Amino acid sequence: xxxxxxxxxxxxxxxxxxxxxxxxxxxxxxxxxxxxxxxxxxxxxxxxxxxxxxxxxxxxxxxxxxxxxxxxxxxxxxxxxxxxxxxxxxxxxxxxxxxxxxxxxxxxxxxxxxxxxxxxxxxxxxxxxxxxxxxxxxxxxxxxxxxxxxxxxxxxxxxxxxxxxxxxxxxxxxxxxxxxxxxxxxxxxxxxxxxxxxxxxxxxxxxxxxxxxxxxxxxxxxxxxxxxxxxxxxxxxxxxxxxxxxxxxxxxxxxxxxxxxxxxxxxxxxxxxxxxxxxxxxxxxxxxxxxxxxxxxxxxxxxxxxxxxxxxxxxxxxxxxxxxxxxxxxxxxxxxxxxxxxx
Length: 343
Ligand SMILES: Cc1ncc(COP(=O)(O)O)c(C=O)c1O
Known about the structure:
Distance between the termini: 21 Å
Helix content: 25-40%
Bound molecules: pyridoxal-5'-phosphate
Largest sheet: 7 strands, mixed
Oligomer: single chain
Radius of gyration: 20 Å
Number of helices: 13
Strand content: 15-25%
Number of strands: 13
CATH architecture of the largest domain: 3-Layer(aba) Sandwich
Strand order of the largest sheet: 2-8-7-6-5-3-4
Number of domains: 2
């Protein structure tokens, strides 16, 4: 069985494991005060090309989303997210459990735009309702689409006009930035969003996300929030070591490029077979629509998510490639799919 279920089926890139082993017996300060974490933060600031940002390393995506949103919002304030957004459908109400409503917005391609947000602001008029305050987006989105620079500029301007916070979940930021359709640089982000994170877990790290807080008003006391949410790790060094390795050279981007290349191979070859896709997704997640009979045949050798029923005979499946996906397995999947279509 070979898995196209997600990009965290494998462990970690060997360079990261080696770095963890090599530093194993060193004694370090706890709670992110170790020299690896401090160096990783400095390095990330260099890569982002800005010193005036706060960077905190956390262990996972849900933890980062809930710690950040709970810290950024006042008790009566709410977040807005596309209905497909990860915080809405896949985080067990983690944000809501911190006391903040998430307002769901239908967005065909998983991306929010000012025109989708205006009706939400118009509908929330006074203190008898929650106050929409934060826009949650992810790049790439839950359905594999990516944000272009001008789309983020529009969202940023909208936030400035309406005194809103723009938060970008970057669990798959590597894949988004390495997409053939991307026109953003890592260093563009502080100009565009108030906070974002760089996902390590889904891009070759064992675990780890680097939260970057750009707007001064969101920075205060963040380590208190981390501690209170159980996110300030005694062995914080483990996160520092990993991010140092990911960003020392180009490993973070090389790994994302590999994942994207494998997805592109699937996308191109499946298109040649006249297979249609549920969404236009130029990143490492694709959503081909195939018949139920083909799905049953493929499931004999491969695991993947059945994403959405399209009609009584067809469903969209989700294929996710990773930093470690093997090219020969992708080629074998394509062959097996061709054979399944014939029979
Ligand atoms: C966009 C996005 N954000 C956040 C998460 C949550 O990450 P974790 O499973 O590490 O909590 C995921 C997980 O798949 C995700 O896809």
